[in-house]
Amino acid sequence: MNQPNLMGVDWSAIPAPEDDGAAAHLKGKPLPDIAMEGTDGTAWTLARQKGRIVVFAYPRTGKPGEISLVADWDMIPGARGCTPQTCAFRDLAHDMRAAGASAVFGLSTQDPAYQREMVERLHVPFPVLSDHKLELTRALKLPTMEVADMTLLKRLAFIADNGVITHVFYPVFPPDRNAGDVLEWLKANPVR
Fold first, then answer.
1. pLDDT tens track of the chain, all 192 residues?
2. Nearest in space to 72 (alpha carbons), one of 14, 134, 141
3. Which CATH number fits domain 31-188: 2.60.40.10, 3.50.50.60, 3.20.20.10, 3.40.30.10?
4. Cα 188 from Cα 172, distance rounded (Å)
5. With contact defined as beta carbons under 8 Å apart, do 108 and 59 qualify?
6. For residue 135, which of 28, 45, 27, 23 has the smallest C-alpha distance?
């Protein structure tokens, strides 16, 4: 089955993920000292980022016209919506920086080459980090799902201040509203 329109999604026809508690442990957790390759070719270590950062994680972006990972991808709660989520963060990244975020990062378990294609195609102005070795995922015990023999991140976002997670958005639904929710939180909780 070919990927449907990656942006035109009827969210009422997609099952919403439930809060399974898999991210409840993250608030207050220090980020581990793990470097991950970004789409800009830089090795980024989130724990070493000064100030406030925004990180949003997603399962797997698709490519227009490509075959879906599995035939029932849209019916897996929380799977559909990686491109709309990424585009929303792209569109609000400047506003997030104006609201106190020193940086915005995307995060998935896809390899860097796959991520770079997406970043170039969608004109994403920030690095997307590859945790294809699952080092950060395992160290933080991030929520995951197994699809087609792959470990994929469940959709979430978090704010970290000087290397410590201070707020978590989980579960995220619909994905295209996640960036707006993050921006509202940043405005309501300015950096001190």
1. 334 455 568 899 999 999 999 999 999 999 999 999 999 999 999 999 999 999 999 999 887 777 677 888 889 999 999 999 999 999 999 999 999 999 999 999 999 999 999 999 999 999 999 999 999 999 999 999 999 999 999 999 999 999 999 999 999 999 999 999 999 999 999 998
2. 14
3. 3.40.30.10
4. 19
5. yes
6. 45
